[in-house]
Amino acid sequence: MLGTCPSSPFLKKPKVRSGKHSIITSDPYVSVCLAGATVAQTRVIANCENPLWDEHFCVPVAHPVVEVEFHVKDNDVLGAEHIGVVEISVDKIISGSKINDWFPIVGHYGNCLKPYPELHLSIQFRPVVDNPLYKDGVGAGPDYIGVPNTYFPLRKGGSVTLYQDAHVPDAMLPEILLDGGSSFQQNKCWEDICHAIVEAHHLIYIVGWSVYHRVKLVREPSKPLPSGGELSLGELLKYKSQEGVRVVMLIWDDKTSHDKLLLKTEGVMQTHDEETKKFFKHSSVHCVLCPRYASNKLSIFKQQVVGTLFTHHQKCVLLDSQAVGNNRKITAFMGGLDLCDGRYDTPEHRLFRDLDTVFESDCHNPTFQANAHGPRQPWHDLHCKIDGPAAYDILTNFEQRWRKAKWRDSRIKKLTTWHDDALLRLDRMSWILTPSSGPIGDQSSSLCNEKDPENWHAQVFRSIDSGSVKGFPKGRVEAEDQNLMGVKNLIVDKSIHTAYVKAIRSAQHYIYIENQYFLGSSYFWPSYKNAGADNLIPMEVALKIANKIRAKERFSAYIVIPMWPEGAPTSAAVQEILFWQGQTMAMMYSVVAQAIENAGLSDQHHPQDYLNFFCLGKREANSIPSESSSRTNQPIENRILNKAMFGWKTENSLSYSMSRHNFC
C-alpha cells in the first residue's frame, strides 16, 4: 500500500517572488504515477505558487516499477503543463519504513528547476503478506466486516434472492443441495419483477443502460398473472402511474440517437432511448434521459469524450413492497439484466425455436443483419433481489443520480425547479420502514431479524464520480471520511475496484470471473502500455497465481468471456476490444509463465494449468421444420447457421455486486 502520512502534507517550498506586483497564474496539482499509470492525484489549487495540499491516499499497487514518480503539473482548460517530477527509488520504499522528507522537484529531463522547488512527502509501503485483511479468505461468520473503506459498508439483517437469466422454468436446471439438506430454489427474475411492479403502492424507480417500453416481462408464466401483468413494460408503468404510484425512470442518453423533426437516428447502441422517452411523453411517468455527465472540472476535450463515449451500466428497479403488518419496505432488483429487447432468455438459450411465440418481435442479434428467422443471440446473465438495509443504499444511489440529472435538465431546459422534485420523501411516510440512523455500518431496523439463519450480509459497490451524482462532499477531508477518493477536482467512489482487489488478494484456492469484457493492467501489456486501461484486476489475478506457484500451492483462475463482444465481429470497435483483451491475456500468461520458470517447474507445469479463458456457446440440433413453420422460408445461410455454435453475450453487473465472480 502506498499512502501519505496524515501529519505530513504535500507542500511545495516557497518560491522567490520576482516582485510584489507579479501575477500568479499557476494552478498546481500532483499526480502519483507507477509504470506510467496514474494511481492518485491531488486537487488543483488555483492561482497558487506555494500550495498546501495536505491530502492522504491509501492506494493498492501491483506495478513492476523501480521508482515512484510524483509529477507536479499546472492545470489548464485544454489539459495540463508538466512542471517537474520527484522520483523515489522503490528500494527505499520496499523495506516498509516510513519515508518523511523534502524532495527536490526536477525538470522533465532531469534538469534543476529554479528557484529550487521541493515537495514534502510521507510514504509507507505495506506488503500484502503482512496485511491481516487478506489472510483469512474472503471471510465468513458473524464477525465478517465485508470490504472495508468503502462508501456503503456491509449491511446485516437482510435477504438476497439470486437469479440466473431472465427466466428459469421449473426443473430445467440440476438440483443444487444446500447445507441442512435443503435445495436451492431457482427463481424467475422477470416474472418476480413484474409481480413486484404490479404490487407496488407508492413508488417505482428504474435506472438502466437501456429500458425498452415494448418489452414483455412475463412470457412463460409459472403462476397466474396479476392484473396488468399481461401488459408490455411501458403500458404497465403507465397503468401503475395512473393508480397514483410515483414512477421515475433514469435511462442512459445515447448521444448518437435522435428523434427530432428533421433528424431521426436509432443510435449506435440501439438502446431505444428516444423512442422510450417519446412513449412516456404526456404521461404521469417521469422519464429522463441521462448521459454520462462529465464534471466541469475536467478539460474541455475530456468533457466531450466522457459525455459522448462513456456511460453507466447500472440496472436497478426499486419499489415498495409488503413488510410486517400494514407497513411497506423498499425492495431492490439489480444486477446485469436490462429491461430491454434481447435480454429475455432461459438457461436453454434457444437459437431458432419459439421465434414466433416467446421471442416474437424480440429476435435480437447485432452480429447479423436484422432477420426475424434467427438465429437470436443467447443472453446469459445474473441478477438479484435485495431486501433489508442494503436496498436503501441502492435507493441512495438512485436519488443521488436523479438529483444530479434533474439539476442538469433544469439548468439547461428551464423546465422544472427544485421544489418540483419527483422523488418521494420517505421520511414523511411513517408506514414505509427505513433503517434507523446511526453510525456508519450500524443501521439496525425492524426490516429483518438479524439472527434469522436465512439472513444475508449484503454490501453495495459502484464506480461513479461527482460529475454524475449530487451529494458527494466537496472537501477532501469530508470525502476521505466517507471513503471517497479525490482525483484532481473530482470525488470518486471506486468501491467496485476496491472489492475486486480485496477478493482476489484474499482468495485461497480459485477465482472464477465471468464478464462481457476482460481487459486492464495496460501498464504491463506487451505493447500499447499507455492505453489507459490501468485497473489492477488482470495483474492482481496473475500475481495471485504467481504467489501460489512460489508457495507450491494449487490454485486455478477461470475467466469466462464471450468469443467476441456484442456486435459484428469484423467491426472496428469489436476488433479493437479483442486486441486489448489479447494484450491482457498475453500479459497475464507471461507473469504466470515467469513464475513457473522461477520455481523450476517448467518441465512439470504449463501456464494453462493455472489460468484459463473460456467462451460459452450454444449448439442447437438441426431439425426438419414442418411445412407450416415460418422457418421454411428462411435463407439457406441461416439454415446452415442452425448447425453452428454461437458465442453468447455475458453482460457485466455495474453497479454494485460481484454477483458473477466467485473467490474461494
UniProtKB/TrEMBL annotation:
Xref: InterPro entries: C2_dom, C2_domain_sf, PLipase_D/transphosphatidylase, PLipase_D_fam
Listed cofactors: Ca(2+)
Domain PLD phosphodiesterase: from-to ranges: 308-343
Keywords: Calcium, Hydrolase, Lipid degradation, Lipid metabolism, Metal-binding, Repeat
Source species, domain of life: Eukaryota
Catalytic activity, EC: 3.1.4.4
PROSITE patterns assigned to the protein according to its UniProt record, in alphabetical order: C2, PLD
PANTHER family associated with the record: PHOSPHOLIPASE D
Protein name: phospholipase D
Source organism of the structure: Trema orientale
